[in-house]
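Need tokens for this chain, all 762 residues.
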Amino acid sequence: MKQFSRNRLSIAFSLAFSGSTCYGESPASPPVQSEVGAAESGDAGTGGITLQGLITPKLGYFSTSGGAGAGKTHFLERYDYRENTFGNNTRDGLIADIDFSLLYSDDLHDLLLLEREGFGGNNQRTRLAGNTDLVKFKAHYSVFTTATGGIDYLYNPDVVPGGTDPNYKAAGVTGESQHVGYFHNDSLGTTAYKVTRTNYGVSMALKPVAFEGRGSVELSYNGYQRDGNQVTNYVLPQSVISGSQSEANQWRGYSKAINEQDRNLAFSLTYIPRESWLVDYEFSVDKFENNASPVTLSTLSQWTGIPIGRRNPHFNGSADLPFHFDADSTQLTNSLRLSKQFDDSAVLGAGVSVSRLQQDNFTGPQLTSGYDTGKIGTDSAYLTGKFNVSQYVGLEAFWRYSKRENGSSYPVTGFYAPVSVRSEERMVAPRINNVETKTYGLEARLYPSLLKTRWTAGWTHVDTDRDLTYGVVPVVPAEMSLYGVRSSSDEVFVKLVARPAKGWSIRVTPSYLWSNQTGLVTEPEEALKLRTQLTYTKPELNELLVSGYYNYTDKKNGLLGHSDFNVTGAGGAGVSGATQAGVFGSPKMQQVRNTFQSGGINLSLVPAEDVKANFGYDWNQTDISTYYFSSNRLRYHYLSVPGSNILTSTDVLALDRAKSKIDTHSLSANVEKQWSQYLLAANYSLSWSKGQTGGGLAGQTLPAVDDAVDNLLHSLSLGMEYRVKKNVSVFGGLVVDYYKDNVYGELSGGRKTLVAGLSYRL
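Here are the structure tokens for all 762 residues:
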């Protein structure tokens, strides 16, 4: 629902607001003109160099209603962020902008193209391109702003009904879970969260004369900048905080600043050393930098006045310990690809790639402990062969290999080691030393002349091996971690493409996957997939086009085990020399089932010479079920404290089978009519979703706003364009959007947008 809504809102606004700028990808726009063409442009010369252009100044007014009010974004504001051009009002205001497209060309090339599309300061893009016989160059610049990652002010548990559970702070309640009853927002008053993404880049491709037309080289530079803030929550260990309220002060959140950039410099070479051979080489350097000031234990103490505890020997009073640390990094990548053509009968291809990602800066506690190397290496290779046995039969075989290896510092005593000597754990999860994957398969294509049918059958095998290191003290036994060291699967599929009669086209692709082993619960033990599409066209009947589809996927996994874990010999401080025997109770499998279905139909026709119409309906359903486990310990906590004779017990119980099932429906209708010098358009869409995100006991533990989905979105756009004369047009449009959430009313709200503009052709 959200992804669809975001796309729909973005298209509806941008198309209406862009007026006469051409958008060919959607029939849902108000009237627009066609792209710049020589037939309707002023020519600087005949048969020589020409200048063509389209300039579109425009003005829009938007008004927002509903929601939680100023400073808090509702659904529409989140996915279609706007801000007054003449102020900083995000609820109401004017947006002024200008689009243009300028093309400088000769008979052979588009020598220079400059385009700009703008929807206000928070959403704009510019493109520059040039082309000659020896060089091509491109440049781009864009800005896009959204509220950060979601309706973030609602992510703070203290403002969400049910976000904190008062039962955990009732009188007499003690233990590790007591903090669930409390939440502390250290950025009170901050409810506006947004991020602005700026993308930029330039590239130049050269065709050196020395290559004699056999190749080219390209140099490119691309980057992005992200600025803004986002909600960030975390839980502190008790021993970091001193005093009787250490448990109540554990669960906290704040507004995290975002200020980061990534820059990529790449060189590529494409060359044909001799006929039928092709060589591609690429080298790139990618540099990521995080420039935001870190939030540390010292910052927390300053915000809250809470003294940082000194009784935790692990932290050693490290006031510079940062939260949510994002390290600067550099990645170097080399890749080489070769291919060889054998007449029309076969093609062989091979390639290798080597990538090294390294951490460039470290925290104070990391360096103090000796963690001074962060490195991941990725190597991959592939080999493919395609063979045409005859005009009716084609074969393809492929093999792919990849290995990702962790070369970071390990072990690091007191920081990241199989056995921690501190009271707070550091080896909290299995260390992934490396992951190695091999994939190979066969594919056969048949082209029988019967019914204009094409058959394709294929088989793919995937093997994955993981090298994992677990703590010697069984912080997370392999049986409890839901990680497996090996995955192995096979998949077969058949694809049918047929045209049984004039105007009819059928596509059907069933596939089946089975696994002997899985390493993650997201990997299916068994999967059944079906993709279908049916199309009928009859141009002589008002250019009728009808298409429908149905897709089905069913995945399930029950190969990974989860067990009751009982500690024998456990006792209080007075139990000297107690040992942890690691006795397991009855095993339980982590069974997961995920079913997805989608279908739809679309109809387009031209009922009259000057009328175009399109109607569509889409539906999808997600249905997921899994075991809901409960534990009397925080996830990944040690079952014993090294150097202590106190043992604690962890009981992992399968309490229920949680289920989530959500249906989403979408309707759309678009009509366009040409009437004399007027072009009129009307577009309407409606989408609604309903279902449960968690059933049974799992659903009962969720906050009231999270256990159900029940919403709908209306969007109506009306537009008109009037051609004043050959090279001048005026246009106007109205877009009305409304979102209603029956579960959380503060997300409901509407927006109206009025647009007017003028287009002038050079």
